[in-house]
Design goal:
single chain, about 425 residues, alpha+beta, four-stranded parallel β-sheet, four-stranded antiparallel β-sheet, globular
């Protein structure tokens, strides 16, 4: 039986979607997840236990397991296991991103350096030990600027500062975040440093694609219609197709194509973010993995630009199925995003506290154009908004004839939700 290795966290949103897609294709998924190796298969999924912080040992464990259950393709979900996946593909002789390119793409400082050296537009940037004094740093930089961790995703820890006072406050928050137990548990040297760079004004976009032997195939270009100017950069709405002028879209694709070459990415999924202004296209990152969370549900594909019963696809297929096909060496150039516009809203967490309930979900689902509303946060869960938080309240999905209709539907559905949050109780003995 054909097998694909899926490297993911044990709680990743996309794991079930990949499992369903594999079932439709008759493919066996072999999981490798970041879990305790002592317990005997606690999730009963026969996963290979790995530790993301020990990349060499994790890759070796997977390669050893592949001698018993041969692997025909590899997919990676999330940023942390991208290097492990690249090492496994290299050892097994499978096409994939080079390990060094995956390592660069996961580190914002290394990415900035590669893009600068390739002559691509980048803001001014410096890196600093995370423990450095904020006041001294503030005296040597210009404003507005942005502070950010080197290796966290989802805009976590990214804060804009407009003057010395706001920089000191932002740096203090970033230091506290990088010292948090969940971050230190990753055992990554990247968390010992932080990046400071000039703020880039402009419109922001995201590109979803796959690379085949160095060539970039664009699967979707997303607009981010809501402003992302700070002080925090919580992403909310993604809508595709883009309504940017054709020339601007072409410049975005070319800029990201050049960025993938500068980083050294070669084969597999890529997710890129960029900002565009009069000075050009500023590529913020190109990750060696697909779009995260449940956001992939906003993308569906048809063969030859239309639903093809003859090809065996009576309905559009999700991104996960397309990625499985690509991982197994199937050409994907003929697959195109379905004709209608689509979008997703990552529901922001409005404030810190303990979630009690979310009301109005059925009313939100009743908005014309809304496909679904998924509240992924659980009752009694402690909610932490950005920049410290690492998750969303949930997701809203919409489809329609135009991007403007989809955007309005997402905003209208969000307006019908009511989030009930209680304040956290103080810890006994604290001051």
């Amino acid at each position: 039986m054909t097998r694909v290795l899926l490297l993911a966290t044990t709680t990743g949103y996309q794991t079930r979607a990949f499992g369903e897609a594999a079932g439709r294709l008759g493919v066996e998924l072999v999981y490798a997840t970041d879990r305790c190796h002592v317990l005997d298969d606690p999730w009963r999924d026969q996963a290979i236990p790995v530790r993301f912080y020990d990349e060499a040992a994790s890759a070796a464990a997977i390669v050893d397991a592949a001698r018993v259950r041969p692997i025909d393709g590899v997919l990676v979900v999330g940023d942390r296991p991208t290097v492990i996946g690249a090492e496994v593909m290299r050892e097994l002789g499978l096409p994939g991103h080079p390990p060094e390119a995956a390592r660069v793409s996961r580190n914002k400082q290394l990415t900035r350096g590669r893009l600068r050296d390739a002559g691509l537009p980048v803001p001014w940037f410096i890196s600093s030990p995370a423990g450095a004094g904020a006041a001294a740093l503030a005296r040597g930089i210009s404003f507005p600027c942005v502070v950010k961790p080197l290796a966290l995703s989802g805009s976590r820890g990214v804060i804009r500062a407009d003057d010395e006072a706001s920089f000191v406050a932002a740096w203090s928050r970033l230091q506290a975040l990088l010292d948090a137990p969940d971050i230190r548990a990753e055992r990554s040297d990247a968390h010992d440093r932080a990046l400071i760079e000039g703020f880039i004004p402009g419109r922001e976009y995201a590109l979803e694609g796959v690379m085949h032997d160095g060539d970039l195939q664009v699967l979707a270009l997303f607009d981010k219609p809501e402003p992302l100017d700070g002080p925090f950069f919580e992403e909310t709405i993604y809508v595709t197709p883009s309504i940017a002028p054709a020339g601007e879209q072409a410049a975005i694709v070319e800029g990201i194509r050049r960025a993938t070459a500068a980083i050294g990415l070669r084969h597999g999924p890529v997710h890129a973010e960029c900002r565009v202004n009069d000075a050009g296209v500023f590529v913020l990152e190109v990750a060696a993995r697909p779009i995260g969370g449940l956001c992939a549900r906003a993308l569906r594909f048809v063969y030859g630009g239309r639903v093809s019963v003859q090809y065996g696809n009576p309905s559009p297929v999700p991104l996960e199925e397309l990625l499985l096909r690509h991982a197994l060496g199937e050409p994907t150039a003929a697959w195109q995003r379905e004709p209608d516009a689509s979008g997703v809203m990552m529901i922001p967490i409005p404030r810190r506290g303990v979630l009690r309930r979310v009301s109005g979900v059925d009313d939100a689902r009743a908005v014309p154009g809304i496909d679904d509303v998924q509240i992924t946060a659980k009752a009694d869960q402690r909610l932490v908004p950005l920049p410290e938080g690492a998750s969303y309240l949930g997701f809203i999905f919409a489809r329609g004839k135009t991007p403007a209709f989809v955007t309005r539907a997402l905003q209208a559905a969000h307006a019908r939700l009511h989030v009930h949050i209680d304040a956290e109780l103080p810890i006994v003995g604290s001051r």
